[in-house]
Amino acid sequence: MSWAERTLNKARSVHSEIAELRTFLHGEGRDESNAGHLFDGHYSALHELYLERMPIAVALDQSDLVLQYHGTLVKHGFCPLSRMHRIFDNLRKELVHVTKTHPNLSAKSFRWKGDMDLDVTVANPKLMFGFRLPRPEESDDDARLLRGFSDPLYQAVKDSLELMGVVTASLQDERPRERIDDFARGRPEIDVALVDAALHAARRFIPLKEPKIESVEVGGRMVPDGHPLEMGKEEWSRATEALKETRIPEDTAEVRGSLMAVDYETMRFELRGIQDWQVRSVRCQYRPEHEEIVKTHGKKRVWAKGLAEFDRDHNPRYLIVDELKTLD
Amino acid sequence: MLPTLTEHGFLPVPPVVHVVALDELPGCFGAKPARRELWQSFLDFVEWLKANTPVSEIYLDGRFLSAADDVSHVEVGIELSVDLVKKCGLDVFKVPALEEFSVRVRYFAPFRPAKHNFHDEFQTPDPEIRLREAPPNLCKGYIHIRL
Predict the structure, then answer these.
(1) Closest CA to A201 of A245, A252, A242
(2) Do B140 and B131 form a contact (C-beta atoms < 8 A)?
(3) What pTM did the predictor assign?
(4) ipTM for this prediction
């Protein structure tokens, strides 16, 4: 039985008890209009079930990834549009960013297509957001049906969401990298760049800088284990530490591309529109001495050289920048 | 004494209904200030019940009995009876229990609907994200107190 069905059954019980109470009062010759106070608790319970519990039930039933933010802001039940937009936009950006880092999408033979985007299942002002993989079988689009589950784009979205679940769960561990490495073993598509992007995204999910929001609870079918995942300051610190533990490669590469998607805290950026290699983007880790160029050359073309992790086709995927020069 | 909460944070079943005395309960539902305040308000409501009505037993349910963090009130169920209504009427229950005692009172008729009654409702957990991996037919216990 789904959570929505169980919640509906709870509501049915309240309705049945209301009817039984009404019958009892009539049998006792009591005027129901003078006994409205006896029903207040029932109506309050129905209000809570339909308006507060049902959205959570639907989210649990339909979502591969659910995020519920907690804090005083959420208790009001209303949220300023700008806050709602900022939090949702951040989630969307990070999820799309992780997916775009997937080797299937990083390769030049594929492009990100809007119709392979994640579906939103819930987005409400109590700051609960649900996402799910698009279901090829539910689409009227014949082309999507043909692509189906084995399509590389679909697989990229699925892998990325699944990895997000594992990374989130790993942040409950003292050493997150161990769980992530176990998951990545035997899956060449879960490489250094994708793990780095997923750790970065999980860290960005944690709302440390959002006033009146203290933590975020993460659930959904893609999150492993049966334990609640509450992410706050501690998990944020673990994600930061885990990002520092990204394996240092041994080979070197030179890459030219446009400097995009900078994160100054974790000192990461992406090079996109790559020349000379058969990949669309390369994830980069820079050092403090590169910060001036990073700050002033967003969306501009740069040249970077450093130790690099390569994919199976010998294209760079992750670069620890040693030298950085401007090209424009 | 009540058993400890299950891994999902609820009173275990069986039994579905845990029959306990009120004086066995203090301290069972958390030491956080908000929970202690709720418990004290609930005790105040029980005192009010004893002083103003012939109600002799109540049911206790809701998120207060679980490991949930966001708890705003205690859920109380009272089964009315013909005698009880004859003795004290209905107006006495006009007390705004939620506002004054942080207690949401549900008044029930003496007889239960055959299907979908409050016993079914009280043993069904509310959906929470932390329960995403819980068994689909997870049940929880609730409390019956003789005052």
Answers:
(1) A242
(2) no
(3) 0.77
(4) 0.95
